[in-house]
Structures are given as structure tokens and as C-alpha cells.
Amino acid sequence: MPCEYLNFIGGRWVPGSTQRTFPNINPANTDDVVGAFQASGPDDVAAAFAAAEKAQPAWAALPAPRRGEYLFKAAEILESQLTAAATDMTREEGKTLPEATGEVKRAINILRYFGGEGSRQFSYQIPSERENVFCFTLRKPLGIVALITPWNFPSAIPAWKMAPALVAGNTVVIKPASLAPLSALRLVEALEKAGVPAGVINFVTGSGGAIGDAMLEHQSLKAVSFTGSCDVGNRLYDKATRRRLRVQLEMGGKNPTVVLADANLDLAAATLVNAAFFSTGQKCTATSRVIVEAPIVDRFTAALVEKTRALKVGNGLEAGIDIGPSIDDKQLGIVLDYVGVGGREGARLLCGGERLTDGPYARGYFSSPAVMTDVAPSMRVAQEEIFGPVLAVLPAENLDGAVEVANGIRFGLSAAICTRSLTAAYEFINRIDAGLVMVNLPSAGVEYHVPFGGSKASSMGMREQGGVAVDFYSEIQTAYIKY
Ligand code: NAP
Question: pLDDT tens digit string along 378-413?
Fold first, then answer.
């Protein structure tokens, strides 16, 4: 029997009101049921909001440095369970154990970083133009915030939403993705063990379709931070802004990497393999288009294919594995469909793109990493987010042409360039329409203490991570004192 996990409401672990659960299944081995989670309903959401409302005034009244102390303590607790938490993550999400370990470490760093924010940057003083008047700002919490998270970074994303929300004095109702809810639960457990008061954090599992509206429509909700697909995010935005809620959306990407002829080709190919295929291409910041300057297309593509073929696909719990499975049958189906779409559009498959089913692959959602060439910018494989191990190679005449292709999509999350030219790098940074820009680095692989977010259809609202993340979760109040 799989372990049954409960909701966390008002400081207690409680079963959902529907008395139904849903399974969390290991995508590398579908015989491995990681756990059973509560298939909650609107009544559970109502209970979570009631608890958050009750706890909010006292939590907001606590000095911010003391709120931060709970985050420091939770970081210590999570750190003491690093291996177990990372193993849970690999089992529920499929990323390799080293990647999962890195992600849990990142969640720990995030808790510590925002613990420190409790004693930093909470207001500033402005000189008044009048005599004997003193002006300053204060940061006030918003109240109750709803956090809705995806499955691909099941610990880091809940951490980078919860930590700034809490340190700013808000209470939280969080709903993790149904495909990978255990890592967020581990984070909530660490905060509980750290002594965070009852009702400050409320954790409710269940399908977004069943409880999303109850969260968004709750009268005491002040803000919602969402990470996930554009479809769900945009629908959520319409509903939330109708109520004048504060909204933050982080959504899809179709991230380009440009490789110029002067780049170190070996380094560029290694960078691309990391950016496109690690975490099975299931990073919002993964590169899915590589735009290569014409004179080196053949040489670069050959190096890329060689490195791609050398990647080892398998169960991420085993040593030496580079790439795990897709998260589920549906996502694997999308990946394989796009390989077919590319072929019908005239792209040429150079390697991979096949479902793996033999031996150790028999019980998982595995496919071999795919590189396609002869891709035109207008093709669907060059325009639509696939969210899997599929990389399209597009040629460009020069930097100008590459920037035009790179910008010619609706997304604008992350972008990268490989070049030895400082001028080309600066030109690219200035002209690329993306929230994150990397030079000679993978488009994925951001740091926990640095602002994060995209442009165009990828994002909406204020930045996450880094000190600025607290802006979304707080209101600035301005005070004038005549003395
Ligand atoms: P998703 O299907 O949009 O789900 C995201 C979250 O929304 C899940 O918790 C989901 O719950 C919930 N949800 C679904 N329907 C809802 C509704 N009607 N009301 C409220 N909530 C609802 O996305 P995903 O498949 O988990 O994640 C993959 C996507 O996330 C990709 O597009 C990727 O690019 C994007 N992503 C973006 C970033 C970024 O920072 N830009 C980072 C990571 C991922 P259920 O799980 O129960 O359906």
C-alpha cells in the first residue's frame, strides 16, 4: 500500500473532504507508486483560507527578522533530510538524483536568502522638501496569497514563492502540481517542524480543475502567484484581474541559443546538450531552438549530434544517467507527436525522437533525445513549446539574422549566445527580447538570489527570486512625519 499523504490546514495534517485520493506515480517505473494524495474539493480550500485568515494578523505583527528565523530553521531541517528529499523528487518527477539534489539545495538556499530578507531592505527614507518633515516607506503584507505551482521544479518553485510571501508577513494557501506534490509537502513539513504558527501555511492537494476556482474566488484572497502553462495561466489571469487581484504569472518558453562562427564549438555543443536535454528538456528555460551562423552549421551540428548520442537515458536513481523520463504518458505523447510534426513539415531528424521500451525502459516514459535540422522559423517545431528532449537547429546568415529568428516567437523567457566577441554579446543582450540572457552559458541554470522572469507571452507581473521577489508580496506605504 502506498503511503497516504494529507493536506496541511490550520497547523494539522488532515484528510480531504471528498475522502478520495489520487496516486503519485514514478515516471521511470510506473509500478512504483510514490504516494496517495488528497483529491481535495472546494470545502478543503475554504478551510485552508479560514485558517490563513485567522493566522494572518499575528503573523504580520511579528517583526520581520523573527519571521525570517523560521525560514532559517526550516532550511536547516530540510538540509538534514537532503538525500531523502532528493530521492523523493527523483521518484516523483524523474529528474536525475544529482539534479534533484541540486534542486533541494537550491530550495534550502532560497529559504536562507529570504530568511535574511527579514532583516534587509524593508523600507527607505526620502528627504522631504519641507522643513522638519521626515518621509519614509514601510512594507506591508498583502494578506492571504494563493500559490499554484508546476511539477517540473517541485521543490524550488514552491520555495521561491512561499519564502518571500511568508517573510513579507502574508499567510499562504499553496496547491502543488498533482503530478509531483511530494517535494512541496516536504518543504511544508520542514516549515511545520521549524515551528511556523498554525494557519500561516496551508497546503491543499487536488486537481487544478477541481479546486482552482475555489482558490481564485475566495473573498479573502489578495494575490495569486502561478507558474505553469500559458493556457492555464492566461485563464487564471482573466479571472483574477476581474477581481482586481494582484497576479504574477510565469509560463512557457521556446528559448533560443545563438551560436556564432567565432564560438568555441566544443564548448558550445556541450552547453547546448546541457541546456536542451538535462532534466529531459522539461525546464521552462531549456533551449529548444539553436540558431547557428551559416558557415559552421554542419560542423556544429555534427558535434552536437555526437554529444547527444552519448547521453545515457534511464532511471534517474541510478548512477551515470544523464536524462530521465518524460513526466507522464501525455507529455511523452506530445514529445513524440512533435517529432512527427517536424518530419511532416520538412525537418530532418538527425538522432533520437523514439520511444524507448526495452528492458529497463519498459515501465517508464522514456524517449531518446532528438536533434532536428532543416528547420524553418515558421515551422511549428520552431514556434511551439514542446517541453521535452527535442532540439531544432535553424541556420542564420549572421548575428542580425539570428536575432530576428530568435525574437520571432511569442515567448520571451530565456535566451543565450555562444561567441568570443564581446561586441556581439552586448549586441545580443541589447536586442534580444527575453527576461534572462546568458553568454557562453546554458539558457537554463539560473541562480536563486538573482531576479527571474520573462517577457512577452512567457510572463506577467513582477519578477520572482532575488530581493525584488518581496515586491510582489508586499505593498509600499509612505509615511510623512512633521516634527
Ligand atoms: P499546468 O498544467 O499549467 O499546471 C500548473 C499548475 O496549475 C498545477 O498546479 C495545476 O494543477 C494547476 N492548474 C491546472 N488547472 C488549473 C485551474 N483551472 N485553476 C487553477 N490551477 C490550475 O503546467 P504544468 O504542466 O504543471 O507545467 C509545465 C508548464 O509550466 C510549461 O509550460 C513550463 O514552461 C511552465 N513553467 C514555467 C516556468 C517559468 O518560470 N516561466 C517554470 C516552470 C514551468 P494540476 O497539476 O492539478 O493540473
Answer: 999 999 999 999 999 999 999 999 999 999 999 999
Question: Which protein residue's CA is at the shortest distance from atom 34 of ligand 1?
Answer: 252
In this structure, the number of other CB atoms found within 10 A of the CB of residue 389 comes to: 29
pTM over 0.90: yes
User: How many angstroms separate the alpha carbon of residue 251 from the centre of ligand 1?
Assistant: 8
Ligand 1 atom having least distance to the Cα of 233: 3
Residue 189 is among the residues annotated as catalytic for this protein: no
Query: How many CB atoms within 10 Å of residue 199?
Result: 23
Alpha helix stretches (DSSP H) within 203-328: 208-216, 230-242, 265-277, 297-309
Pocket of ligand 1 (CB under 6 A): 148-153, 175, 177-179, 207-209, 212, 227-229, 232, 236, 250-253, 284, 385, 387, 413, 454, 458
What does each C-alpha distance from 390 to 152, 188, 259, 371, 412 come to in angstroms? Answer: 17, 34, 18, 6, 19
Reduced to 3 states (helix: H, G, I; strand: E, B; else coil), residue 483 is coil
Cell 490546514 found at: 9
Give the whole-angstrom CA distance, residue 66 versus residue 197: 12
CB 469 within 8 Å of CB 164:
yes
CB-based contact 143:56 (threshold 8 Å): yes
Check residue 121 and give its pLDDT.
67
* Cβ atoms 166, 196 nearer than 8 A: yes
Tell me the pLDDT of the chain averaged across its residues: 97
Amino acid at 423: T
Distances (CA, A) of 318 to 129, 313, 342: 66, 10, 32
Is residue 436 pLDDT above 80, yes or no? yes
Give all strands (DSSP E) within 26-66, no chain letters: 33-38
